[in-house]
Design a protein that fits this description.
Layout lengths: L37 H11 L7 E6 L11 H4 L6 E6 L3 H11 L5 E3 L13 H7 L11 E4 L5 H9 L7 E5 L24 H10 L2 E6 L3 E6 H8 L9 H4 L6 E5 L5 E5 L2 E2 L4 E2 L29 H16 L1 E2 L1 H4 L5 H18 L1 E5 L5 H17 L2 H5 L10 E3 L20 E5 L20 H4 L1 H35 L4 H11 L8 E7 L13 E4 L5 E6 L5 E7 L2 E4 L12 E5 L1 H6 L9 E5 L8 E7 L7 E4 L2 E4 H18 L1
Parallel strand pairs: 1-2, 1-4, 2-3, 4-5, 12-13
Antiparallel strand pairs: 5-7, 6-7, 8-9, 10-11, 13-21, 14-15, 15-16, 16-23, 17-22, 18-21, 18-23, 19-20, 19-22, 24-25
Helix pairs in contact: 5-6, 11-15, 12-15, 15-16
Bound molecules: 2-oxoglutaric acid (AKG) and fe (ii) ion.
């Protein structure tokens, strides 16, 4: 060690004790064709777990040429092999080699890109059901997944099906730390990979036990078999921390002056490029590099609370899409393209996106929210009842327990614990469509002239602005959908999105939630799970915490959040409705969502402004080659839902 003064300071790796246990199954590891000892671990596992039938079955997804870095070669390529293999490979050339290798042994080779989409005929569960030998058992012996991307979702798909493989070997992304649950989007075109803890969490839900890890692969054994045959072979409790070490992780730390430093792996593993510190600096100018709290430094000490709001805003800014190029008159083409792609990426993944750059004034948003609060939460019920919705036409006030969002997906009875007020386009004379009823505002007699006027002014202004924003968002979505398809039927369906939507049936609903019976421990939603029916929904919430919007993602619910204060550039949630989803051949999902009570000691009422964008009633639509008007599509949708409800 040098004690001379190094101007760059000293940066070395310190020795830390390893917790990695070497006395588990890893001690049997060896490679014949595998990469990091997998061949030996697999051999040992199937010595421990006895065979229960004439042949054993394995499925190898991402089998490549059958030999290179293969985890199944040793089991299958052998004169007296007791194994039958189902080998799946997407790459055409490699597949040819795979067939040449396996044909003589009678194994099943499939040249398919396995899809992670739920109802695809290329999903792994579908392939196992339809493209395997007739005696292929549900509890087949060995599943090996290595597709460099959607591995998590393929495993998810199999575990949710009838199949219960005995042993699973699945690849994880070895750069991700052990305290990170990273699940890549469910999208066949995305290659992120998922973290080891995410895979283990998934497998544990289906009663699988992690038994060993190599550099890239996790081994999981069905719990009944683990208890009976494997447990005694492992002299410790097999957890992630003792079975794996992140040796390829990259971490970052910060110096007091704002310099960012990289620790650990300094190269991009799959791209073979260096990760250079000079490229990742946020403060890149030397003069900016100051420690803000150094003695004598000019301190602009903001209260901590403001700082955390600013941080929250920054975070939301970084995950929202800037749609300003679509909201101003002369948006630049390249910016528009960038924006369309970005919003579609978010929407394709889960039917939800965050947008900003709409040009709306923050004060107008706050005024609309605070007048919503005054009307729904503070005014006497008589004020609200002065504009009571008489039928289920969509204008005026609708009290708690009067409606049921989920009726459209077959739930019974009015059960939404939320107060609502709706406004829409002004009625055209003689128009009898359900969505073009006259507006009903609260009366002067019950609420006083000033309240009534201000409420109407701000809600109407917000409504008018949001209709424009919604149109811009739909244009933005339509541009990318159109440019990325060559399907002419789909293209003509999308035409409806780009027509002039000046006369429309868009409805603004004010929703007000507060603490009530459903906050007492019961997990019943305030608004039951549903999908929105229209084109898109654009949502804004206030800071209330008594209710939270959640969207469905595989088997769980994810909170949909906005900043707790409306930022200078307001951020909105966009949600795809059934009509748009139908029009684009379901490329964009209309995702199930619900509103749940939030239990907290100090519960603040929560208000929401939801603009449901709709076409004009007689807008012609082409959906899967059939033509109909928007009103006909809606009626049909509602009739189908009611039919389904009748069957329950
Ligand atoms: O209040 C919310 O967060 C959204 C309610 C909702 O899903 C709807 O109005 O369709
Ligand atoms: Fe909704």
């Amino acid at each position: 060690m040098s004690y001379l003064n190094d101007p760059n300071g000293t940066v070395r790796k310190a020795k830390t004790p390893s917790h990695r246990r070497q006395d588990g199954l890893i001690k049997y590891s060896y490679d014949k064709t595998s990469q990091s000892g997998e061949d030996g671990i697999i051999e040992k596992l199937f010595q421990l777990i006895p065979s229960t039938r004439d042949r054993r079955y394995l499925v190898d997804v991402g089998a490549w040429d059958g030999k290179h870095l293969s985890n199944s070669y040793s089991l299958l390529i052998n004169e007296n092999s007791e194994w039958h293999g189902v080998l799946i490979e997407a790459d055409g050339e490699k597949f040819q080699d795979l067939v040449d290798l396996h044909k003589p042994y009678g194994n099943t080779c499939l040249n398919v890109t396995v899809s992670c989409m739920r109802h695809s005929t290329q999903s792994l569960a579908y392939l196992l059901r339809h493209s395997t030998p007739s005696d292929f058992p549900d509890d087949f012996e060995f599943l090996c997944i290595d597709v460099d991307g959607t591995d998590y979702w393929l495993l998810h798909d199999v575990l949710h099906s009838q199949f219960k493989p005995q042993v699973i070997c699945v690849e994880f992304n070895p750069t991700m730390p052990h305290d990170l649950i990273y699940i890549q989007p469910r999208d066949d075109n995305i290659r992120h990979g998922s973290s080891l803890p995410a895979l283990v969490e998934l497998a544990e839900q289906f009663d699988y036990q992690l038994v060993e890890c190599t550099c890239y692969n996790a081994f999981l054994v069905r719990r009944d078999l683990y208890n009976q045959y494997v447990r005694d072979e492992i002299p410790f409790e097999p957890t992630i921390d003792v079975l794996h070490e992140v040796t390829m992780g990259t971490s970052m730390y910060q110096l007091y002056d704002g310099t960012l430093k990289i620790h650990g792996c300094k190269k991009m593993l799959w791209h073979r490029l260096p990760i250079l510190e000079e490229k990742i600096q946020i403060l890149d100018k030397k003069e900016d590099k100051l420690f803000p709290f150094a003695p004598g430094a000019e301190l602009d000490q903001k209260p901590v609370i403001e700082e955390s709001i600013a941080n929250e805003e920054k975070m939301f800014q970084s995950i929202s899409v800037d749609i300003s190029s679509y909201c101003k008159p002369d948006g630049i083409v390249e910016e528009k393209q960038h924006c369309s792609r970005a919003i579609l990426d978010q929407l394709k993944a889960d039917g939800f996106a965050l947008v900003r750059g709409t040009g709306i004034d923050k004060d107008l948003c706050n005024k609309a929210l605070s007048w919503t609060h005054k009307f729904l939460q503070e005014a006497p019920e008589a004020v609200r009842r002065s504009c009571l919705t008489k039928d289920r036409a969509r204008r005026g006030y609708s009290p708690q327990n009067a409606e049921n969002f989920a009726s459209l997906i077959g739930e019974q009875g009015p059960n939404d614990l939320v107060k609502k007020f709706r406004v829409g386009p002004e009625n055209e004379e003689g128009d009898s469509f359900a969505l073009t009823q006259p507006n009903a505002w609260p009366t002067e007699e019950t609420w006083g002239l000033e309240n009534v006027q201000l409420f109407q002014k701000y809600i109407q202004e917000y409504y008018d602005y949001l209709c424009k924003i919604a149109n811009a968002i739909v244009q933005c979505i339509a541009d990318e959908l159109k440019s990325s398809t060559s399907d002419s039927t789909l293209e003509s369906s999308l035409d409806a999105l780009t027509v002039d939507n000046e006369s429309h049936t868009s409805i603004l609903t004010l929703l007000g939630y507060r603490k009530g019976a459903r906050h007492q421990g019961c997990k019943k939603p305030l608004v039951a799970a549903h999908t929105d029916v229209g084109v898109i929904t654009v949502l804004l919430f206030d800071a209330g915490n008594s209710a939270v919007l959640q969207r469905a993602e595989s088997d769980t619910w994810i909170d949909v959040k906005l900043p707790t204060q409306v930022p200078n550039d307001p951020i909105f949630v966009v949600n795809i409705g059934d009509c748009l989803s139908d029009l684009c051949g379901n490329i964009l999902p209309s995702t199930l969502h619900r509103v749940m009570p939030r239990n907290s000691k100090d519960t603040i009422p929560r208000n929401c402004l939801a603009l449901f964008q709709g076409f004009k009633s007689d807008q012609k639509l082409q959906i899967s080659g059939q033509s109909m008007t928007y009103e006909e599509w809606r009626k049909n949708k509602i009739a189908k839902a009611q039919e389904a409800q009748g069957k329950i």
